[in-house]
Amino acid sequence: MTSLARHIIEVTDAAALAAAAAERVIGRMNDNPGRIAICLTGGSSPKQLYELLGREPYLGRIPWDRVHWFIGDDRFVKADDPLNNMGMARRIFLDRCAPAANIHPISTHAHSPYDAARLYEEELKDFYGANVLDPPQPLFDVVLLGVGPDGHIASLFPGYPAVDATGEWVVGVSEAHVAPFVPRVSLTLPALGSCREMLFELSGADKRPIMTRVLAGEDLPANRARAAEGDTVWLCDSAALPENYRD
Length: 247
Ligand code: 6PG
Description:
Layout (H helix, E strand, L loop, with lengths): L5 E6 L2 H18 L4 E5 L6 H7 L13 E5 L1 E3 L9 H13 L15 H16 L11 E6 L24 E4 L10 E4 L1 H4 L2 E8 L5 H8 L5 H4 L6 E7 L10
Helix pairs in contact: 1-2, 2-3
6-phosphogluconic acid binds next to strand 4.
């Protein structure tokens, strides 16, 4: 099914959410007999999913040689800094499971977040094989996302010009809107939207206030993010959804 509509799937708790996400990610891998590209996300929401992907029974179901791992945004800190998003994914599962050549971090040792953005855009274009995104040929099989308390996704914060970027695939963001207050590098909405599935993960009561605003249709980056020609799926546990969600 391809739809511009958001599809919300409710699960009981964080463990069920991680298992459901793992099944969806592996399902998308199974749909692609060629080279697979997964765009990971930072923050705390995907950690349980990353732990599952790195152990059985999921580990053995992933065609590691064919899967390339990217990151939707990163904090402009050293690769081994605990705040580095790709560093977190590497420590949890990638370094143990994926061929090194298939791991594509943002170069946070570049001179500035803007240089890092330019380098990552070049790397993505090289991987994709073209300088312009062609909607029927998505860049990614799956784009994972979390939502911040202000409705940001990746490092696209509400009201920032980066949210409206259309030409660039990757942008530097000099100041974050929420902690950690370090510069960021982020894929733009068109690059993130070039996917077969955009998969959000929201778990816990802390997410309920922002989920309430999202469902009210506020103009937030989280509400603008859509898979251009694929499916946009929000996996939420019951605690993250407002009481009146089904009314
Ligand atoms: C980052 C993230 C960011 C994150 C949301 C949700 O670098 O911080 O990529 O967009 O996904 O802020 O974060 P949590 O999962 O920690 O709530």
